Structure formats: structure tokens, C-alpha cells
Amino acid sequence: MDGQDVEASMVGLPAALILARESRGMTQADLARAMTSLAGAAVSQGYVSKAEAGRLEVTGDRLDLYARALRYPISLLCADPELHGVGVGLVHHRKRASLGAPALRRIHAELALARKQTQGLLALAGVDGTHRFHHIAVDDFDTPADAAIAVRHEWDLAPGAVPDLVRSIEDAGGLVLQRDLGSRELDAVTQWLDGDPPLFLINSQAPPDRARFSLGHELGHVIMHREPDSGAVQERQADEFASELLLPAGAVRAELKQGRLDLARLQELKQRWGVSMAALLRRAATLNVVTDWQYRNIMVEMSALGYRTQEPSDLVRETPERVHALVADLRAQRHDVEALAEAAGLLPDEFVQLYLSGESTNTLPSR
């Protein structure tokens, strides 16, 4: 059976159609309009709805039209996301309450497809996904701080500041990608499926200091929480984990106590510890280095200066390297772009933009 016959026999799967559409941030009406524009004939929102509900088959020319409108290869629309372990599954994220459901669904879909991309590239390279992550249970006696101390020990992190958290996660076998998540309301999102290394997406819109703490927060979820929930307990635990991981009490307490803790001192400490002034101030409060009155006064001052939204910073953004190094190795082994894109479930131009161009870690195709 040649390539044309294979494509003619392929059928779009409802779950894959939904995942692909949501990853592009498109509504059913948006997709119908895009298909109408490409086809030169009307495609209704009702057609898209029925296709996604499995009430009609998407094959042949209509499947090709679907793929062109969504800018994905036909094969992606015919692969069961759950069968291949790239469905939304259990997802952790550090987000603001103002992030709406459509935006969150898009981010979850992007995470699921990023999982497919990394799975395909690892398989092509013959990499088995070995990693050094494991769950650590926390309770009233074994705290999130204890879990962070255990991770620092297991990963051989030196006392004091963590020089590069992204590198530490990658050295432990984790996968980290940086993407524009289309919103400043979410800094990072994580998924860990059985049999695979954890995958972390960092929002390139997040300032480096906030992105770094959010990555520590997501690592806390991965380590401590087998299933996400919507309550405040897990969020508090993940914050406590990130605080101890990035600002270990034994090392940071002495520095916080040196001299008067004002904005100038916080900015100086920010350069050393790589987290926001607000995170340092919160850590000082939890370690009883400042009083509640001092904490509130400094926070008011920061708010007046606009630091609650954007702090002054010249921190260097930590850049993921593992997946891009894997792609470079595959290219060196004479795999062409078309083969790499096929393995990742992408069209060649998007694969180049995400994994081979100089801007690959910072942008997604225009929507």
C-alpha cells in the first residue's frame, strides 16, 4: 500500500482532533472558519462538533483539510493520545485564579503534545528515559522541607544556592522545555506519567526569578504528589518544598540576618539566590528573621514601586539543553528534518522553529 492509499484509509480520532485544536487555542468556530477559508466552501461549527463527538468519520479530503487548518500532520490526528501516553492525564500547574478554563485547556494540550514530541525523539535516538525521580510521601512528621533536603542530597547539590535548577533537573533525567504559553497567568506546568521521565514546561513570558521558583514548585509537586488536587494544601506544600530547595534554611537564614533587610539588601540577595525579592522576603518571614510588621511594610513599599508585578532584575534565564542536544545528536547521525518532525508529530517548519532555530525555545507558531 503506497503513501496515498495509506492516507486515504486513515481516520481522524475524536480525542486527537480535540487535543490538536485546543493546542492551537482555537474554538470549534475558529476551526470551522479556518477550514472554510482553506476549502473555499462552507464548513460549519456543527460539523466540527460532530467530528469531535465521534458522530461522523473524518477521512480523505476532509481529514487533509483538518490537518492543514490545524497545521499538524495527518498522522497526529489519527493517533489515540491516551494509547500513546500523551493525553492530559495528571497535570500539575502553578497558576493564578484569573487564568480561564479555555487558556488552561490549551496549555494542557500543549503539554500533552510536547510529551508526544519528546517521546518520539527519545525513541528515535534509542534513549530509554532512565531518570532519578521518585515519590517522597509527606505528612505531619515528614515535611515538604524534608523532601527538598532529601532531593538536594540525592542529587548531590552543594550547600547554598542552586546554580542552575534546569540543569539539575535535566541531570536527574527530567525533560524541560521552554515555551510561550500564551498567558502571564501561569509560569510552569508539569506532567509525570508512569514509565516516562517527568516533563516540565516553563513559560517564556515569566521573569527568570519567578520562573525559577515556579520550576522548584512544580518539582515539589512531582516529588510529593501522585495526584493533583484543586485544594490549597498541595500548593502550600509545593511552595514549602521550593523554598527549602532554593533557599535552604541552614544557609539562607544567616544571610538574611546580616544587616538591615530592606529593598537594597533584598535586591542584592536576589542576585545570589536567583529568586524574587518577594520570595526572599516570604522566606525571611517564615524563618522569623523579620516581624509581621516589617514584612507588611516592605511588601507595601514593593507594591508602591510596582515590584509585585515586575521586579527589577538582570538575572540570566536558565535555558533547557537536554532535548535540543538530543536533536543535535540525531542531526549529526544524518536524520533529516522530515524524519525528526515525523517522529515528533509535527510538520517540518514547526519542528525547525521549536527545536532547531535560534528562537526555538521562546516562540510557538502564530495562531
Judged by helices, strands and strand pairing, the structural class is mainly alpha
Query: SSE string, helix = H, strand = E?
Result: HHHHHHEHHHEEEHHHHHHHHH
Low-confidence parts lasting 5 or more residues at pLDDT below 50? 85-89, 359-367
Question: How many strand units?
Answer: 4
The whole-angstrom Rg is 23 Å
Strand order of the largest sheet: 1-3-4-2
Domains, number: 2
As a percent range, the share of strand residues is 5-15%
Mean pLDDT: 90
The geometry reads as elongated
What fraction, in percent, of the residue positions are helical? 40-55%
The major sheet is characterized as:
4 strands, mixed
Counted by DSSP, the helix tally is 18
Task: State the distance separating the first and last CA atoms.
Answer: 35 Å
Commentary on this structure:
It is a single chain. This protein is mainly alpha-helical. It folds into two domains: 1-80, 434 Repressor (Amino-terminal Domain), CATH 1.10.260.40; 89-367, no CATH class. The protein is 54% helix and 6% strand. It is built from 18 helices and four strands. It has helices at residues 3-9, 14-23, 28-39, 45-52, 60-70, 74-77, 101-125, 144-154, 165-171, 208-224, 232-246, 249-257, 263-273, 277-286, 292-304, 322-332, 337-344, 348-356, and strands at residues 91-95, 175-179, 186-191, 199-203. Strands 1-3-4-2 form a four-stranded mixed beta sheet, with helices on both faces. 40% of the residues are buried.
